[in-house]
Amino acid sequence: MTTSPTGPTSPAAPSDPARIALIGTRGFGAVHLRALARLEAAGTARLVGVVDVAEPPEELRAIHHRSLAELLDAVSAEDQPEIAIIATPIDTHVPFATEALAVGLDVYLEKPPAPALEDHWALLAAADSAGRSVQVGFQARGGAGVDVLREEVATGALGHVDTVRAYGAWQRDRAYYNRSAWAGRRRLNGRRVADGVATNPLAHAVHAALVIAGIQEVSDIARVTTELRRAHDIEADDTTFLRIDPTGDGPSVLCALTTTAPGQSAPWVEIVGTEGSHRLRYTDDTSVRTPGEELSHQRLDLLENLIAHVRERSVELISPLSSTGAFSAVLEAIQSAPDPTPIAADSVDWQGEGDAAHPVVEDIEQTLHAALTEGRPFSELGAPWAREDAVHVWKPPTR
Fold this sequence. Notes:
10-stranded mixed sheet; NAD; Gfo/Idh/MocA family protein; GFO_IDH_MocA-like_dom
């Protein structure tokens, strides 16, 4: 038997189901519950307990606990968890993950992993001290298409690539931002939340673009240019331009993102080289490479990958915490800029009623495309709702 700070735990055979504790059962936690049911049926995982401050549904009542410590005290040595899945509000990610690592658990942590760059570094140190691993839930990394485009950039398969572009035009209504106290917030009760369009709903596009461009570490970033605006009655950004310039000679990353589109379209990440282009729709793992070649890409489940890694440490994680430093730097750049200013009412068309109402910003989709084509913020393109004073440049701190 092995010993953790909470007591003895039984070693697992490679073929044993991984023992899982789920922290947070609502919101995306409900998605994890459905996935765990599938993995339990396959004999890959076993849910040994859930942690939530809210009363659980009847089917979870027998394994519900108010804290991880309470769960660990309540279950037998044979049922001690090996992995904690953390699907809680963003500002609680680091405290929960640090607690789980300290008692010897590996961690699956929802994105964004941390609300501040200092928190990212602290969590890396905690994982290193504990000798445990953290997989971050950037689901787009489970799709092999991201690695295909990354390899094409690295090898010059499409010629010289100046920029990697990420486009996301989603529609979100009032109910989306009313779903919880932290939704659409930059801060809550004196703590960072960082629930903007680029750091939560469309964070997958930003992270995938950084990976494809080969920008992984904070030290890979020279500067981040942001233009943050909002049409929703929220605190965070819902319409955002990002330009991430590297320290080396690799491509820059351009992102144009919104939750104020007239409809919902599939987000994409694209490379355009001197000898061709390749656009990946990461939500359905399909891509188009010029001159019209359509590809489908295999997808691997990030939790299954973490389980395989826990069973055999030589199995590499697909989305380890160590690969998300550049994303945390972009989040820091966004949070370091002044609060996004509201877009003038005469440039916003509110459609629908009550909680189903959603804003549509004037010519938003055309403006997003133009920003990516020109590589410039909205305010430099003449968009009537854009403002030059919303543009800010951030540079990483030296450590």
